Amino acid sequence: MLRELFIKNYLLIDEIKLDFDAGFSVITGETGAGKSIILGAISLLLGKRADTDVLLDKSEKCIVEGSFDLSNQALKDVFNNADLDYDKHTIIRREILPEGKSRAFVNDTPVNLTVLKTISEKITNLHSQHENLALSVAEYRMQIIDTTAGTTGKLLEYQAKFEELKNNIKHLEGAKQEFAKAKQEIDYYQFQIDQLINANLDDENELNELEGQALMLENAEEIKAVLTNSMNLIDNNEFSIDALLSELKNSIAKISGSYKNAKEIAERIDAIVIELRDINEQIAGDGEKAEINPSLLNKVNQRIDLLNSLLTKHNAIDIAELKQKLNEYRKFINSTEEIEQNIINLEAKVKHLTAICLEKAQNLSKQRIAIFEKTEKFIEEQLKQLGMPHAIFKVHNTILETFSANGIDNINFLFSANKSVKPQTLDKVASGGEFSRLMLTLKSLLIKASGVSCIIFDEIDTGVSGEIASKMGKIMQNIASDAQVISITHLPQVAALGKNHFKVYKQVIEDKTSTHILKLTSEDRVNEIASMISGEKMTVQAIENAKILLEN
User: Fold this and answer.
1) Alpha helices in 314-371 (DSSP H)
2) Residue 510: left (phi > 0), alpha (psi -120 to 50), or beta?
3) Contact between residue 54 and residue 11 where contact means Cβ atoms under 8 Å apart
4) Residue 480 DSSP SS3
5) Quick one: which of 373, 377, 496, 384 has its CA closest to 437?
6) For a Cys staple, 504 with which of 33, 40, 202, 431, CB 3.0–4.6 Å?
7) Local confidence pLDDT in tens for the 552 residues of the chain
8) What is the DSSP letter of 537?
9) Would you say 362 and 233 are in contact if contact means Cβ atoms under 8 Å apart?
């Protein structure tokens, strides 16, 4: 429950500090006095986002701090899951800094808004004036049913599997699209692979060798004639180079006795002769190769053309790069096989998760449906007490053909305030006052089921008056036996039932307007409730009526 509320530098509030007790407390004040400002500050503790527009003094930070007594709530697991130390006296604080930053703390430990909401929603429930509209939202109706049925934990388990199912379906669709695209290219890549394999690219130097061979074949006649002549010049007649070198060596040898370098020169001549004979052998071999063979030349040129066309086609600079391209094409073909296997695996996983989700969704649905009748009876009984003896409330469920985030249920609330009117959806049959009474009964149901220790009503009694207002106030009193209730109200009948009474008012000092809140004494309460009855002009009868309301 909320023990203490501290607000500083928030909109029209300079600084206020409020102490709350258990049970039923009411907050009253004229329209525009600032009751909504206080609610706005409390909503910051519940995780609402804020900016520097809320700062009264733009140079100072805004602080909203709530002190909560959690001794009657089993929240240790919630704190542990959020990696926070549990303390039965917990302080939640929000700070809005002038530079625009927002900070949140739980027991002085910094937390993000997600953690703050997780903690605060287990402690406090804030009913805003716009929450009646939430009944038209399927998510909100489902929340009411799940809280009442105690299926919130099972819903979270289902949602975890449903999220896993959605992710796997997404991956499966992506894999199928990838495979479909790859499949269109498989034939193309397989053709390239076959062509490169058939080209027999084992020898990476083949093209250079072929080009050399082609050059020789193209000039074979000239090459053969030159090489034959070269061999003749070397050793085929008495004037050959070999014969001349032999004669040179013999001449030098004759003067070896008197010419000290003769031996060295003779050795060098021998070396030249050896090199010359080696050249002659090479020329002879090349001469044999330099055959005039148009058929072979044509074959060599065809091979060269094939290799060059492959280089151009695959944008490669040499055969080594062509072989690299071949490996890439093979990897692509292999990857399509991996994609296909991945699709098979994903399909199996989706099928498995679908079965799990279906089982969990069906179990959820059974447990929800089991409390429909009990919920309907509770709501109708409460509505009878609120002056709607012929009210009919039905929980209508349609089983979906596909999964949703909430399972396979599509829950709607049907309502009729009159005997002769068939129950219909709330937006078609409920007036403002009927909505208020219905929402109060739903809230009383939620509080019993959810275990929150504090509920704040923002004018939930709008649209009612007289005896019905008194009965709504008594239901709030009953709720207060299970949880702390703080109600903002314009109705004297409700205000009189509060254990504690706070008044919000505005004050103007030196052209500065500020909002204040005051805890009323017994005498102050009489005057406040009397003014709520009679308006600005206080009457003796209004004062007497106020005393009677308070006594009752």
Assistant:
1) 319-370
2) left
3) yes
4) coil
5) 384
6) 33
7) 899 999 999 999 989 999 999 999 999 988 888 888 898 899 999 988 888 888 888 889 999 999 999 887 778 888 888 888 888 899 999 999 998 889 999 999 999 999 999 888 888 888 876 665 566 677 888 888 998 898 988 999 999 999 999 999 999 999 998 888 777 777 788 888 888 888 888 888 888 888 887 887 787 778 878 888 888 888 776 678 888 888 888 888 888 888 888 889 989 988 998 898 898 888 888 777 777 778 888 998 898 988 999 898 888 889 889 988 888 888 888 878 888 889 999 999 999 999 999 999 999 999 999 999 999 999 999 999 888 899 899 999 999 999 999 999 999 999 888 888 888 887 776 677 788 888 888 888 887 777 788 999 988 888 788 888 889 999 999 889 888 999 999 999 999 999 999 999 988 888 888 899 999 999 999 999 999 888 777 888 988 988 988 887
8) S
9) no
Beta bridge partners of 374: none
Q: What is the DSSP string of 69-123?
A: E-TTS--HHHHHHTT----SEEEEEEEE-TTS-EEEEETTEEE-HHHHHHHHTTT
For residues 122 and 116, what is the distance between their CA atoms, to the nearest angstrom?
A: 10
CA 516/CA 54 separation, integer angstroms? 16
For residue 102, what are the β-bridge partners? Answer: 96
Both tokens of 337, joined, read: 């096989």
Cβ atoms within 10 Å, residue 444: 21
546 in Cβ contact with 492 (< 8 Å): yes
- HEC assignment per residue over 76-91: HHHHHHCCCCCCCEEE
Instruction: Give me the amino acid identity at 12.
Output: L
Contact 319, 204 (CB under 8 A): yes
Task: Tell me how far apart the alpha carbons of residues 84 and 512 are, in angstroms, rounded to a whole number.
Answer: 41
Is the CB of residue 358 less than 8 Å from the CB of residue 135?
A: no
Phi-psi region of 295 (alpha: psi -120 to 50; beta: other; left: phi over 0): alpha
Question: For residue 471, what are its two tokens?
Answer: 């009965």
- Residue 143: both structure tokens together: 């929340």
Residue 6 bridge partners (DSSP): 17, 65
User: Structure tokens of 380?
Assistant: 């109708």
Quickly tell me which residue has 């501290």 as its tokens: 6
**Residues paired with residue 125 on neighbouring β-strands, in sequence order:** 455
Q: Read off the tokens for 523.
A: 């005498």
Q: Which residue has the tokens 């701090």?
A: 65
Reduce the DSSP state of residue 219 to 3 states and report it: coil
243, two tokens: 């014969």
Q: What is the pTM of this model?
A: 0.66
* CA distance linking residue 262 with residue 265, whole number of Å: 5
Give the C-alpha separation, 552 to 536, whole Å.
24
Pairing of strands 512-519, 13-19: unpaired
Q: How far apart are CA 322 and CA 157, in angstroms?
A: 55
Expressed in angstroms, the distance from the first to the final Cα of the chain is 26
